[in-house]
Amino acid sequence: METVARPLSHRPEPIRPAPGYRALADPRIGRALRLMHDRPAHSWTVASLGAEAGMSRATFARRFADLVGQPPLVYLTEWRMTLAADLLRRPGATVASVARKVGYADGFAFSNAFKRVRGVPPSDLARSPATDLPE
After folding, report:
1. pLDDT at 102 over 60
2. Surface-to-core class of residue 122, CB atoms within 10 Å of its CB (0-12 exposed, 13-18 middle, 19+ buried)
3. R_g of the chain computed on alpha carbons
4. Contact at 8 Å (CB) between 87 and 126?
5. What is the mean pLDDT of the chain?
6. Share of the chain residues as helix, strand and coil, in percent rounded to the nearest 5
7. Which residues contact 54 (CB under 8 A, 6 or more apart)?
8. Nearest in space to 103 (alpha carbons), one of 84, 124, 118
9. What spatial distance separates the first Cα and last Cα of the chain, rounded to whole Å?
10. Does the pLDDT at position 17 exceed 60?
11. Distant-in-sequence, close-in-space partners of 96: CB < 8 Å, separation ≥ 6
């Protein structure tokens, strides 16, 4: 039996938690994430999220991006579109009703955002509940 010695430079990297776990564990950023998840239709701004987290707008935005990997409003938009995709697959869902549930005042702005984020118009999902969207 042969033993091979590996140089110290070939040691595996330590396992680091995914950014989302670190963000949720952070008392301030975790609070903001929970608020966005609990109240996605609220008209959140970086300033209002920062205030809820007890931080200035700039400090909050920087810390959020460091822990989550993207700016707060980009994350919020993606979260809203994830919820919208699920809602659109429900029988009887309309683009306008889903738009209101995820924080858009009108279906037009929502449709534009959905297509930009998901690559397909929301009406495609509303007509075809079994459609799989790219994640």
Report:
1. yes
2. buried
3. 20
4. no
5. 86
6. 60, 0, 40
7. 28
8. 84
9. 48
10. no
11. 106, 107
Quote the tokens at residue 125: 């999902």
Closest CA to 39 of 116, 86, 101: 101
User: pTM score, two decimals?
Assistant: 0.78
What pLDDT digit, counting tens, does each position of 63-76 carry? 999 999 999 999 99
Burial pattern 79-103, b for ≥16 Cβ within 10 A else e, equals: bbbbbbbebbbeeebebbebbebbb
Residue 128 structure tokens:
């075809």
Work out whether the CA dihedral 26, 70, 61, 86 comes out positive or negative.
Answer: negative
Rounded to an integer, what distance in angstroms lies between the CA atom of residue 78 and that of residue 80? 5
Q: Cα(97)–Cα(84) distance, rounded to whole angstroms?
A: 10
- Under DSSP, is residue 84 helix (H, G, I), strand (E, B) or coil? helix
What is the tens place of the pLDDT at every residue in 34-47? Answer: 999 999 999 999 99
